[in-house]
Amino acid sequence: MKSERLDMTQHRRYSGLKVGALAVPTVAALILTGCSASTGSSSSSGGSQEFSLSFATSNTIESPFQVLAENYMKSHPNVKITFNPQPNDSYDQTLRTQLQAGNASDVVVTSPGSGTGRSILPLVQAGFLEPLDDAAKQLLPEGSASTFGSDGKVYGQATEITISALVSNETAADAAGGFPADFSSLQQQCKALESSGKSLFALAGSAPPNTGLMAMSLAASRVYAEDPKWNDKRAAKETTFAGSDGWKAALEAVNTLKDAGCFQKGAAGGGFDAITKGLASGTSVSGFIPAPSWKQLQSAAGGSQFAVRPFPAEQGSGNSYVFASANYAFSINAASKNKDAAKAFLDWAAQPEQTKAFAEIDGALPVSGLDKYDFDGGAYKNVGVLIKDGKYGPLPNIQWPNSAVYDALATGVQGIITGQKSPDQVLQAMDAAWEQ
Amino acid sequence: MTATMQPKSEAAEAPRRGKRTPGTGENTRPRRGPMQFGHWWWALPGIALVFAIHYVATGIGGFFAFTNWTGIGSFKITGWANFEAIFKDPTKLGALSNTLFLAFGSVLLGNIAGLVIALGLNRVLKTRYILRTLFFMPVVLSPLATAYIWKYIFDFDGPLNAFLTAIGAGDQAKPWLADPQWAIWTVLVVLVWSSTGFAMVIFMAGLAGVPVEVEEAAAIDGANLWQRFRNVTLPAIRPAVAIATTLGIVQGLRVFDPIMALTGGGPAGATETLATLVYKQAFALGNFGGGAALALVLAAIILIFAVLQQRLTRSNPED
């Protein structure tokens, strides 16, 4: 009662409260609707000279996509590009939600294949992407047309060639007596480095993308060097992961690396910071990270030189092999109202000087003119011979049917390192995920 | 003793039963009297929002549990297939047992710790107001932010292992959150830490209603400390126990962000719970139908335990 009386006096005194009580939710609702509508209206109001661009960012270094787009704005003063950067770990989900809701950016960064949330093929199937023209077709890396579209149409414009192998601190490798040439000398060096409190590899054992990339690097010389079409055979059910000697050997090699002390102490719980810290300080010699990271590491660790290396194969097998593929692409949102402006940007980005510039910004290899690329002396000198000899293929999970297969591999390898799982169990889980 | 408590609990019951207390509404309703404040339709925006956000959205989500929707594009209705897949998959059953372990573990330990602290800080201590604030702090802080601090503490190069090494127990140092045996216990420690403050506040509210006279009377009658707690205090704060445990179990069953930040469900699923699995299936792996089915299972489990728990801790069978 007491409080009611109090309320009433207040009510009588400030009858404006009544209005306020109604006004607050109303204004809030207006602000909320205003917020959600603003993305759409700003991208459509400027006509064909304005468009928006979504890309993923994973660190504080300016995204190469943003640098490229800023260069475009500089050379085309009448164009305005709105940037929509998203954190890398939530990019896939945000992209899918926005495409589903119809308010995604005009140009979005996607990945070929169907192995991830941003992969082109499922997005095409759902009708979210616009077919691209000849400029994009000409940039298709050899043999990858089926991962960039279907029925002869291309829905993604490759941006660069990314090598997925090892990035090594060459200064630390030299101090340890040079990088090992084959798998058995690698084990020797692991033991030597371990006794001096260092490690040959820095592993983010608690970050599934990193354990997965390590397993695929181990499978490069054991599976894909011998049979580059292994994924096609798996898709045709001619083989399985559990029935493949190569895959078994690759996952057993995880145990070999662990027993030889190749990983830093506490690797099972390590995050990506363990890799950057380890490689920059030289306490770890190398890591399983995408090749363009060499450039960022080199700028972070002033005194050290960084390079890209293939994972050492078994001695005398001649099976050295790396993954080199276009892992990212520009796509145009099918619901975009600024398709002409977006297409003009993609045509510009497909020009040889722009693909070259983009690769340089990111520290990757250019998507066009790889045969004429000068590997000598640069960070890629150790993989140049393999690329020239054609001993490379696309990152395997690009061709896998869904992201659950890679997830089964990545979390499975984590289980192998902690002793929870055997290689056979992991391979069976991958087969089960493939059939989902 | 019971007689002392009875009027109090009845007074508390009255508004819950929805009976109008004389004089508040009926007399003033027909006229715009001084007691009138507000109209029923003022609640409409709120009702509409609750209905749209809680019920319609949940209902649509529930519908997708019976489809093979990937989160984008078209879908087919697949009946109970998603539910069959859940109960056939051993990893999902592992997540279920982890969920129950963490929920009941955190409720049990969190409530015991909360009760002990509440009893300790109830009357005597001079610094009790500061201590109450300190113990309640974890509830106010962002679970995600504190989870990252804990992650740092349990890191292989973190303070805990540094401490162990300093006291000569360096051989016990391990990556706590990536150790298959220890990871779930480490997560439990964090959950108990964050739930203790909440239980403490509820118990303190309960303890405030326990009359000092009754305790004194029991003490004069020769009851020792444990007997006074067991036979006087505990029965008096039974409603508080019911509330604290029910809310704790509901919260414990659906806990998501600390686990996601600490281990992400790892190593290799050792700390996976239904909530983290729902997220992974629906959003990371593009299996929205399967994720929705899992979320329904989780909702059913929470409902069952909440009802069971309410029955078990009902304040008095004669009520």
Structural features, described:
The complex is a heterodimer of chains A (436) and B (319). Chain A has 436 residues and is of the alpha/beta class. Chain A folds into three domains: 33 residues; 159 residues, 3-Layer(aba) Sandwich (D-Maltodextrin-Binding Protein, domain 2), CATH 3.40.190.10; 221 residues, Periplasmic binding protein-like II (D-Maltodextrin-Binding Protein, domain 2), CATH 3.40.190. Helices cover 49% and strands 12% of the residues of chain A. Chain A has 19 helices and 13 strands. In chain A, strands 1, 2, 3, 4, 5 and 12 form a six-stranded mixed β-sheet that branches. Chain A has a four-stranded mixed β-sheet with strand order 8-9-7-10. A three-stranded mixed β-sheet of chain A has the order 6-11-13, with helices on one face. In chain A, α3 links the parallel β1 and β2. The longest helix of chain A is centred in the N-terminal third of the chain and has 30 residues. The termini of chain A are far apart. Chain B is built from 14 helices and no strands. In chain B, α9 runs antiparallel to α10. Chain B has one domain: MetI-like fold (Orthogonal Bundle). With 319 residues, chain B is mainly α. The interface between A and B is large, with 43 and 36 residues.
